[in-house]
């Protein structure tokens, strides 16, 4: 049986609401009406809507349409169409920036409205299917390697995965910390449950607790990641970036084995395994006072240290073959042996981006073939490979350093330009100009692909 799409219409003019409702009902949609913000929030709290049609100006309402838009976006991920009889370009831009799917000016014709409704719902369905597909394909990549260090890690995984012990994974960006976390989950007692991953370094500190624990009040009932991970595994990447206040609450959760949603006193049992990772040494952070020592001991039951790629060079051939095969199949291209090409061009290269960087290089070679030529870069990477920077003029050496430094920082923050700019002390616009000046194109940016 096909589920009928449910739409909430928020407008202070009852005639307009009834008119839109009649149009939607004729097309097979189910509609509800709200005349102000209080009614809107109540409807959203008690129903699962597929779309919201929202007027900007609302009389006798505590919130106007744009404020309602922001409130909905804080709690829910559903398409929203903004309508207004007093719209302008600035208002439309502001609405889209705050999360609206489309902006329609009144008066609008029936075809225009129905087209926007259909398009917004279909786009949301595609996004939902992609999320489901991503969850199903969490094992797309395998933990590849035969080096002594990787063999030791595989042995650790075999021992600790079937247990309920908490695990701390250390490794530089791009070494595959998430892959190891997934391997632990795949071989655990919770393997049939969800694998939920969050990156504490990329999340808004003010919103982190709501994301982790959920939120419940008269308006909303949001499920947090701890609850979503029930009967599965919660992987907290870059746990060292978690605010001290949140650390205290996580410690309480691990101690009491239960938690409450923000705004609620109802206890929820903790029913998931927690695996964490960090680039930084948490023990050092505890000495500096930025990470709780008691939480460190709770999380650091078993430690796995992942080596950088240049410390496991005997695995590079396997990795080249592995990723070449994957990308050749994905792009329906004949698989060729890339080892001679890559190992010649990258001789003595340290691979600062680790496996993620190697993977990106392989993908570009598979897709572009001979068209992909590293020598076209403004500064040949061999200058850095051969570590001859000290023999270069200051201007050239500085440019090589800046490029490598910025690529590493962007990679560290998983492509978040705003966080990168804040960390290195630059304005976001200035960082964009610097990247352009250094010739770092979209193709070069390691952060576009994540391992």
Describe the structure.
With 451 residues, the protein is α/β, with parallel strands linked by helices. The protein is built from 19 helices and 14 strands. The strands form four sheets. A five-stranded parallel β-sheet has the order 2-1-3-4-5, with helices on both faces. A five-stranded parallel β-sheet has the order 7-10-13-6-14. Helix 4 (89-97) links the parallel strand 4 (80-84) and strand 5 (102-105). It starts with 5 loop residues before the first strand and ends in a 14-residue tail after the last helix. The model is unreliable at 374-388 and 443-451 (pLDDT under 50).
Topology (SSEs and partners):
Blueprint: E1 6-10, H1 14-26, E2 30-34, H2 37-46, E3 51-55, H3 65-75, E4 80-84, H4 89-97, E5 102-105, H5 110-136, H6 148-160, E6 167-170, H7 177-186, E7 195-199, H8 208-213, E8 214-216, E9 221-223, H9 225-228, E10 233-237, H10 244-256, E11 258-260, E12 267-269, E13 273-278, H11 282-288, H12 293-299, E14 302-305, H13 316-330, H14 339-345, H15 354-368, H16 382-385, H17 394-412, H18 417-424, H19 428-437
Parallel strand pairs: 1-2, 1-3, 3-4, 4-5, 6-13, 6-14, 7-10, 10-13
Antiparallel strand pairs: 8-9, 11-12
Helix pairs in contact: 13-15, 18-19
